Structures are given as C-alpha cells and as structure tokens.
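Hello support,

Our group uses your service weekly, and this is the first time we've seen a run hang past the timeout. The protein is ATP-dependent DNA helicase RecG. I'm not sure whether the cause is the sequence or the server load. Input pasted verbatim:
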Amino acid sequence: MLGGKVMTKSLQDSVSVLKGVGPSKVTALNKLGINTIEELLTYYPFRYDDMAVKELAEVADGQKVTLKGIVASQPTFARFGRSKNRLNFRFLVEHDVILVTFFNQPYLRDKVENGQEIIIYGKYNAKRQQLSGMKILGQTSQDFAGIYRANKDIKALTIKKIVEQAFNLYQDCLVDILPTSLRQKFRLESRRQMIHDMHFPASQKAEQLARRSAIFEEFFLFQLRLQYLKKMNKKEAGLVLNYDSQKIKAFSQTLPFELTTAQKKVVNEICHDLHRPLHMNRLLQGDVGSGKTVVAALALYATVTAGYQGAMMVPTEILAQQHAEKLQALFEKVGVNIALMTSSTLKTKKARQTSLTALAQGDIDVVVGTQALIQDDINFHKLGLVVTDEQHRFGVRQRQILREKGENPDVLAMTATPIPRTLAITAYGEMDVSIIDTLPAGRQPIKTMWLKKSQLNEALQFIDQQLATHSQAYVVSPLIEESEMMDLQNAQETYEKLREYYAGRYQVGLLHGRMTAEEKDQTMQDFKDGKFDLLVSTTVIEVGVDVPNATVMLILDADRFGLAQLHQLRGRVGRGQKASYCLLLANPKSDYGRARMETMVQTQDGFVIAQKDLELRGPGDILGSKQAGIPDFSVGDPIQDFKILQIAQIEAHDLLEQSDFTTNSENQGLWQYLRESGTLEENFD
Ligand code: ADP
Ligand code: MG
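Update from on-call engineer: The timeout came from a worker crash unrelated to the input. Re-ran successfully.
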C-alpha cells in the first residue's frame, strides 16, 4: 500500500516494475518480445542442462555432464599461443582417474587444490578419459537448469534472475485459464505449477510434465484466436454476387485449353462463396505453373457478369503488366474492359484523371495494379472481388485498405508457397483454403542436375549449347545469409566473370536487391525482350516473372538456399515449349545437405519438397514459412507435437460452439485472460 492506495498486481504490468530492471534492461527484454510480466513468465528456457551428478559409467562419449570427485594431482597451469592458457589436473571419480582440462579460465588456478572435493560440469571424451571443464559448481546448484535465449544486451543468467523475481512476486496472479473440465480431461497441470516447472524444474520429469501442459496451452490459445477470427469473418455480411453461369460456361469454352479437374474444383469453391451472402476470405494455393491466373480470370469474370468490378493487386510493376496482358488476352472475346494501373501508367496527370474517372464510373470492369491501387484518390464504382497474388508480400493493412474501397468485397488471395498439409492447420487458419494440387497435363519437366563445383566448366558449356539455340539463361549467385551487401558483391563478381567469358558472343545482364523497383522491372523487361541472353541475379527473381524463352538456370552454391526457395527459383524456367534445365552447383558437406540436393533432383512437386524440407529441417527453419503465415511457437513444435495441436484445434472449436460459451462460469478465467492480454481485439457478443 502506498499512501492508502492499493496497488493491484496484474500480469499485464510492465517488466519495469521489477527491481533492477531499468530502461536499458527493459529495452533489451522488449527486443526479445517481452514487455509484460505475462510475457516474461511465458518466456521459457529454450533448453535445460542436466546438472545432476552422474556416475562415470552412465556417461556417453561427448556428453555434457556433472561429475563429483577429488582433485588427485597438483594442478598444472600453462600458457600457450598469444593469450591462451590451460589448467590440467587428475580427478578421482569413484575408482577411476580422469584428466580434467580447463581452457582459458586462469582464475581457477587459485581455486583448485590437490585433495579437494569438487563438482565439475564439462564435456566428457570417453576415449581419452578426459573432461573438458566448463565450470565448477557449488553443492547447492540446481540439478536441471533452464537456459534462456538471450541477446547481446542481456545475459541468460540475468533473465533467469528476473524471471525468478517475477515469479515470486506474481505467483498469486497465475490463476488457471483453461476450463477445469479441459484440464482434467487431459491431465494438465495448474498454470502456476506449470510455469514454475517450466522455469525451475526439480527434475527432467517435472520439466516434461510442465512442457506438455505448456504446449497444450499455447496451441489452444492460438487455435482459439484463429477460429474466433474465422467465426467472426463468417458472420460478416458479404455481397451476393448473382453471376451468370451460362456466360461463365461460354467463357470457359473460349479458353485455349480445358481446365484441369483441380482447377474446376477450386473455381466451384470460389463461385459458391461469391454467391453466398457471407464474406469470402479464401486462399488459393497452387504450385508455380499450376494455372492460378485462369482461375482468377474466371472469378473476376463471374464478378463482372454479376454487375460488379474486380481488382487484382500484385507486388511488382512487371507482374502487374504480365497479368494484365494475360487477362486481356483471355477477356478479349467476352468484352471485359480491363485496365492496368501502376505508378507508371498513372504518371501523367491526364492519364491519371482519365483512368480514375473511368474506374469510378464503372467503365472499367477489371483493374490490375500494384500498391498504386490503394491510393486515396482511387475509387471504384462497385467493387465486388479483390484478388491478390503472392499475398504474403502485402501487409494485412494494404489488403484491408483495398477491401475498404468496396462494400466488403470478397477476397481471393493466391500464393505459390507450398505449405505441407500437416502445417496448413496452423498457417492460414483464419482463411478457407482451396488447393490446386495437380499441374496441367503435358507439362515439360524441368530436368534437374546436381553438379560438383569442380564441374563449373561443364555447366557453362551446357549453357553455351542452350544459348546457341537462341534460348536464354539465368545464373543465380550464391546467397550469403543475412547480408544483402555480400549478395551484391557476389552477384557483381559473377557478373564480371561471365561478361568476360561471353565477351563478343552473348549479352549478360545483372539483377540485384539494391536496385530500385524501377531498375529491377527495367532489367527484367530487357531480359524478356531479349536484350540480354543471360541474366545474373540474386534471389530477387523469385517472384512469378515469366520469360518463356529462358530454358536453363544455373544456381551457384545451391546448398546455401532453402528447398522452398530453390523450388521457387527453378520455377522461373520451363515456362515455354522448349525442354528446360536446372543445374545445381554445390558441394554439400553433410548427409543432410546431400539429401536436400537429391530431393531437388528427384521431384518437382512443391508439396513433396515442402514436406521433405520439413522432415529434414524442422518447421522453424522452412524458408519463407514466416511469410507464409506459420507463426513462431515458443514451446510447441507443430510437427513433433502435431497430435496436441490437433486436439487443441478440436477443443477450441468445440468451446466456441458452446451456446453459453461466454457466460459459462467455467470459462470465466479464460475470457478474463483473453481480454486482459488483448488476444482477441474484438469483443465477444
Ligand atoms: P501460376 O499458377 O504459376 O500463376 P499460370 O496461371 O501462370 O500459373 O499458368 C501457367 C501456364 O499454364 C500458363 O501459360 C497457362 O496458360 C497454362 N495453363 C493454365 N491452365 C492450364 C490447363 N488447364 N491446361 C493447359 N495449360 C494451362
Ligand atoms: Mg502466377
């Protein structure tokens, strides 16, 4: 109590209320995503060191272990190299004598004495019977100690102390949030016990029990939120688009090919949604080349026959142009008026005025554009459907603004990022998903070869042969993780070398991430127009650019890329009539690296690759998975703990279906928690 005022504690208090947590520590914690006490208390250790004293016989080679014994020789101290040193002594553990070595901990020199009993934590080499000492422990240290992920501004041990303090102060606030019946059904621990044991388990067993509860809680809250959003979305009134099925049928007969079964299925799903008085929020997932554009065309056409306008938003100018051309060709016979709106087509005042007026008056049926479409002065007459391509490249905000230009138009988001089916449950949870799971028949496979780096010349000769037939080629320069600067240097070097190599024979172009959007578009356009025969590029060519005349892609140091990314890159070739090739140049050092290259050689199915990637690397590492919307879980692993995830999904669903779910007293703890933590932005009705 302060001056008669009761200070109530809340898990939503800022971590700054803790002793010793001043502005700089607050900033450091914020960087780890920790702002509140709740976030701090659910910031669990990422691993635990088993510090319990072990017997030598049960220690595996290379294992980190705690041994208790007696110093059995006079420790010797030696310096070597410039600033390195080593402390050696014999150590009697039960009846065995092993050698202990501490590197670069000179202060231990005065602490270790012959004959003394000590406990040492270190890494054991069984063959040499030697322990590389890491630290000397006191008698009272914790047997099973959590290690926290830290950063350069705050130490793991500091975090641990802060967590300890917070737990002691706030443990009374740790009330149960999951309904009792649910906790009993799955034998989950109380929240207080769970949080305690996640941080300070008395044993490995205690930690595992707590973890099971923590994973359930994390998945359950996540699912609850997703499904709640979905439910609210479903309740939202949407437009009823009374499209003309006869016209749509006639239109599909004008197409130069027959739709695949998969395409027909998704067109039906979309049309069903368009017609319903509910708001459509649908994701169309289909591998590169699976034919999403024509599906979008059918959806847009249906919208037009219902008397509404359609908009398609894509991330780059060149893609906008490409899509506009494709749609134009498709719509020609049915008299749909299509317009392209990008910053360059809207550049002059006059052109802008003409386009905007036409759009606002409804003279334009379908508009294709970049983010320029969301500018303030752009208005539609009657917007019925918004399509986005490569949707993960747009922020939620941008999609929202476009939606607001109509009266809650339906939304179709297209993506080529293949998400393994096992993960679809977590990604895109708030959207309905349509999947095109087969490619049109007769597609030329992209022959993929994996070459060793020493075979670079053979690869270049192969490219020569392709260029000689007037085909074009891509060379993707190695990816240097987290350094766009190095990427650029690399690309430039490769570019210079290839220019020299092809001097007087072929034209070489360069594309990289440091170029402005206009420069990139220009370079791609030049390549498309045949001004270059060969294009050296960093990964920026990834997004759906179509140069049908490009038949070969060489990827340097291919093992540095993720499988999903290699798949996306490879999809840039094989888009025309000619046979196409992908050459992967790589000397992977591990079995894992070799397995990845072999996967690329063996399959072209994006889903198979994504699944393989998942098995080989684990979900946290899938490249592009963040963009694709798979969230970072802190305790649960959507693959390993898939069963729990499924159960959590079902239980969250059932809970939301309860007719009295907001009033049921069993759920009060949960609602309070959801409200306080801002997990649900909107209120339950
Ligand atoms: P993506 O899904 O990558 O956007 P596109 O829509 O660009 O794929 O289609 C790739 C190519 O396949 C295009 O040239 C398109 O005309 C063609 N295509 C689409 N559907 C079919 C089909 N059912 N049969 C044959 N070719 C098709
Ligand atoms: Mg596409």
